[in-house]
Amino acid sequence: MLAEHSGGTVSDSTRELLGKAAELAGGLGGTAQVAVLGPADLAGQLGGAATVLWMDHPALAGYVPQAYEVALAHLLAERSPRLLLLSNATVGLDLGAALAVLWDAPMAAYATRLAVEDGVPVATCQVLGGKALAEVELPGDRGIATVVAGSFPASPPGTGTAPEVVAVPPPPGLDGVATRLRRVIEPEAGDVDITAADVLVSVGRGIGSKDDIEIVAELADALGAALSASRPVTDNGWLPKTRQVGKSGLKVKPRAYLAFGISGAPEHLEGMRDAELIIACNTDASAPIFDVAHYGTTADLFDLVPALTERLNG
Ligand SMILES: Cc1cc2nc3c(=O)[nH]c(=O)nc-3n(C[C@H](O)[C@H](O)[C@H](O)COP(=O)(O)OP(=O)(O)OC[C@H]3O[C@@H](n4cnc5c(N)ncnc54)[C@H](O)[C@@H]3O)c2cc1C
């Protein structure tokens, strides 16, 4: 598997893959090996893996897809793993298909479950934007799976036996990588992390305008909740992109998710369907959000939201 990291810390998705990689490796009669690209010393955060394959080179100083492709293609040719695990997020989606071609391997994308059955890796994958699932096998001697965030429990940092670190000399191809990372532009600081919120009040296009977001923000305040949104709301600039839930936003798993004026498109559901409690308000009784909601109402949000806020504040 590939360790994704930034600022010297491995990503949550990498910690989610660690335990699963060890389990699958056991089932396949091998060991879990983690590729670490770049200067960071991450071995202490990758307990549970047997080996860290560490490669450093100036082209790997930051994430550059072409450089990562060259480095990983080299490691795959040299090590011939049975299965490569990547996150199904920006990095994994960039690299998975390219490596499947370079390494001539089958790939299962959007995997939410992985197991070894009769010696063969089997992946359960989301298809049609998460409306259906497909179970696929990766027979033969190699395969790639990209795993949806939140599918497996994350290993807490610093747990498990420290892996052996093997320094792998970089291949000459890295000298010819045409793209160099100049700088990383961090998102605006100070905004709320909606993935860490216990309760989310989420607003969709049904709110109609930026000015009316305020009524939902007041309800969120009254509940001590964070405010999140569907994509049209962030696309319109009514809330920052950091508040977007869904396929091209953030995956959230709060204790309670209150959806106001959100239809429940598959791309939105992908980001919130694992919330413990979902409450939806939508004037259209046939809106698909009601298929995942535990409680729902067809009240008009412009009647319900101020009344709720008043009750909570009163
Ligand atoms: C590749 C791709 C990625 C995407 N990624 C995301 C993503 O990350 N997140 C995301 O959310 N979407 C995403 N989308 C967009 C997604 O397909 C939907 O278009 C979007 O989720 C719809 O947002 P919505 O529910 O707010 O709007 P709509 O579908 O327009 O729904 C608005 C709802 O509000 C209800 N409503 C209207 N007035 C009221 C009222 N007064 N009171 C109560 N209810 C009312 C309506 O009945 C309607 O159901 C993506 C699409 C693609 C193709």
Radius of gyration: 22 Å
Give the count of helical stretches.
8
Distance between the termini: 53 Å
Roughly what percent helix? Answer: 25-40%
Whole-number total of structural domains: 2
Can you lay out the helices and strands and say which pair or pack?
Elements: E1 5-6, E2 9-10, H1 12-27, E3 33-37, E4 51-55, H2 65-79, E5 84-87, H3 90-102, E6 107-117, E7 120-127, E8 132-137, E9 144-147, E10 164-167, E11 199-203, H4 213-223, E12 226-229, H5 231-235, E13 256-260, H6 266-272, E14 277-281, H7 289-292, E15 295-297, H8 301-313
Parallel strand pairs: 3-4, 4-10, 5-9, 6-9, 11-12, 11-13, 13-14, 14-15
Antiparallel strand pairs: 1-2, 6-7, 7-8
The structure holds flavin-adenine dinucleotide.
